Amino acid sequence: MTIFIFDNTFEGLLTSVFEAYSRRTFPDALLPEGEPLPLFHDEAFMVITEEKKAKRVWRGLQKKLSSGALSCLAQCWLAEEAETPILLFRYMRKAIDAPRSIETNFADPDVLEFSRMWKRVDWERLRMLQFIRFQKAADGTFFAAVEPEKNALPLAIDHFKDRFADQPWLIYDIKRAYGFYYDLKEVRQVTFEEGSREGHLVTGMLDESLMDKDEKLFQQLWKTYFKAICIKERINPRKHKQDMPVRYWKHLTEKQ
């Protein structure tokens, strides 16, 4: 078994593809730095990420894949699944080696799983558009917390920039400890010192001392509206949980 060890970045993955062709040695597994190695393996090669090599591989893929497939490739990296690195490696290798496009060759198990992985990431993006709930802070900033299964927050940011262009907001991924802040001019990624990640950065809910004076009232109005439109005779808990998965309830105003 041949193993490549890389820095667990997309650029590192592309560099791994470059090194594999350069060495004419293709890995059976791609492991992030710090991961324990399998008990039995023949060779472990440490990949040093280089932007120049990563760009060469990306330019090569641009000749083999459509812009849509390239976008899906980048989005699949956000799946953060155990098999993500090696699956994307195999997909890129097949795309480079094939005489024609592999994008619709769903008879190939890697192409099929690539498509399914992309759908899982995109589904998480759509869920965030549905279930993000903002709370207005005393300084006028609208705050929302998320904990998506996939690292799909970057894929949803353009929607919120267009939809809420007239108000400052912060959407924060509690699970991954980063977020995006919009100041009415531009969106930028933000992180917070570990010691400062308290209160709403942990629970996802603003303390009353941080809320706008009318926020509590609006939350109560939303809960009342949500309850009013519910038709008791048509309550279907199973269908409700399918449409609004329980894992999102923690940050939904109407479920508090």
UniProtKB/TrEMBL annotation:
This is DUF4130 domain-containing protein. It comes from Bacteroides oleiciplenus YIT 12058. Pfam families: DUF4130. Residues 86-254 form the DUF4130 domain.
